[in-house]
Amino acid sequence: MGEVLVRPMRAEDVAAAEQLSGEAFLALDRQVYRRDEPDPQPRTAEHRAGWVARTRHFLDTDPGGCWAVDDADGTMVGFATSIRREGTWILATYAVRPGRQGRGIGKQVLDAALTHSRGCLQGMLSASDDPRAVRRYLLAGFTMHPQMHLTGTVDRRAIPADTGRRVREGTPADTELMDSLDRRARGAGHGPDHPMLQGLFRTIVSDTTAGSGYAYLGATGAVVLLAASNRRTAQALLWSAIADGPAEQTIGHVTGANDWAVAVGAAARLDVRTRGYLALRGLRPPTTYLHHGALL
Ligand SMILES: CC(C)(COP(=O)(O)OP(=O)(O)OC[C@H]1O[C@@H](n2cnc3c(N)ncnc32)[C@H](O)[C@@H]1OP(=O)(O)O)[C@@H](O)C(=O)NCCC(=O)NCCS
């Protein structure tokens, strides 16, 4: 490996980091995708814009958690962004330029980001299927919990008749409730991430005597984050998202601890597939919770 420089990431690095990340994940997807799935495609403009907005937010809230690696000529060859929320360290994203991987650059930049985890008893990240990434996380003390995604054409006849009855649109006034649900599910609120998420996504909330919960829904209606106080409420939110969504749907980031979500997916006749891992340190897999890939 030639000489590289690990340094704090800056706002002016975000566009180059997005490009590097897009290349690294596309190269990985091309290596690991299944032949019966559509060929991996470059990110859409919408995906890229969301990535950039999120990374700017990380630099605002956690400048000490975001690191870049430069080559001797000043070209960025890797980076890692991480945040700290109420004693939980979260690795948001992490990549090394294709062609430069597997030669120790990733270790150096992850070690820099891990300095931001000092004093945090808990850690979370959503890992890719890259064996190099998995090795780095195992060596950093994480346990790996395989993730499923539920995908296919929804059988709309399976949607319960009372779907949506206990669910309403969320507002910023629900943020305190959302943080409480996060703490109960994963030991830490999302804090400053909620206003950002509320700006990017539709929010649905259920808050009745039967239980409380919320979910953020992406542009295609897919759940990008869900937390609930019990399984019944988690299922009511998931059914509501499915009912409002398109014919083809994917519910991602489902672990073995989320059997309530697997049951909904099976009832809706979605296929179960595995992809990546939920990696945890000092924490058991959350149950009535579907994590966000970067904000966990
Ligand atoms: C994951 C990633 C950031 C790691 O960076 P890197 O520079 O490749 O990592 P390193 O070289 O420091 O470490 C890789 C480790 O895996 C080992 N390794 C290399 N090739 C491997 C392979 N094909 N299979 C298994 N292990 C491998 C290395 O020997 C090293 O372990 P060691 O330090 O004990 O020797 C980089 O590979 C990448 O960008 N991957 C694609 C995007 C991705 O998956 N990002 C992580 C998202 S969660």
Automatic annotation (TrEMBL):
It comes from the Bacteria. The keyword Transferase applies. GO terms for molecular function: acyltransferase activity. This is GNAT family N-acetyltransferase. Gene3D superfamilies: 3.40.630.30. The keyword Transport does not apply. Residues 4-160 form the N-acetyltransferase domain. It is an enzyme of class 2 (transferase). InterPro entries: Acyl_CoA_acyltransferase (IPR016181), GNAT_dom (IPR000182). Keywords: Acyltransferase, Transferase. It comes from Nocardioides plantarum. Coiled coil: none annotated. Its EC number is 2.3.-.-.
